[in-house]
Amino acid sequence: MSWDIVYRLVKQIPRGRVLSYGALAKALRLSGGARSAGRAMAATPTGKGIPWHRVVGERGKILIREPYASLQKKLLESEGVKITESRVDLNSHRWKPDKKSLAKKTAATKKRPRRAPQK
DNA sequence: CATCTGACGACCG
DNA sequence: GCGGTCGCCAGAT
Asked: Is A72 within 7 A of strand C by CB distance?
């Protein structure tokens, strides 16, 4: 799968702003949801100018393990993001991608079925 | 092809 | 607020 679209969006996250895996997945309509977003980040090649550290858990928590967790925290703080107890202040830093930022082309399996027509 | 695992999230206790 | 479970899906073995 091409995580290109994910990287592209992540690269557009403004300095001092963060986005959650879930929001990221939703914005791009990834089939696997937050998990796929996470996979994408896990496969993110470092040194490509991709601010992967601006992606945290839905509640602003750093979910990754050491030593990346510490690194991420450090990077965020250096960007002016407030962090409290390994937790990002999503309340003031949550970022919403612009519609234009969503210049996705091949968003995984497009969109997934809404819900079972139950009832 | 069968299973397990995982940079997640929603729920429940 | 924290920890355990389940659901979701794609990759890895």
From this structure: no
Q: Give pTM, 2 decimals.
A: 0.87
User: CA at A34, C1' at C5: how many angstroms apart?
Assistant: 17
Domain count, chain A: 1
List protein-proximal bases of chain B (any atom < 7 A from a CB).
6-10
10-residue mean pLDDT profile of chain A (119 residues): values are 87 93 90 90 89 93 88 92 86 88 66 55
Give domain status of residue A41, yes or no. yes
Can you say whether residue A8 is alpha, beta or left, with left for phi > 0 and alpha for psi between -120 and 50 degrees? Answer: alpha
pLDDT score, position A10: 92
Task: Look up the CATH number of the domain holding residue A23.
Answer: 1.10.10.10
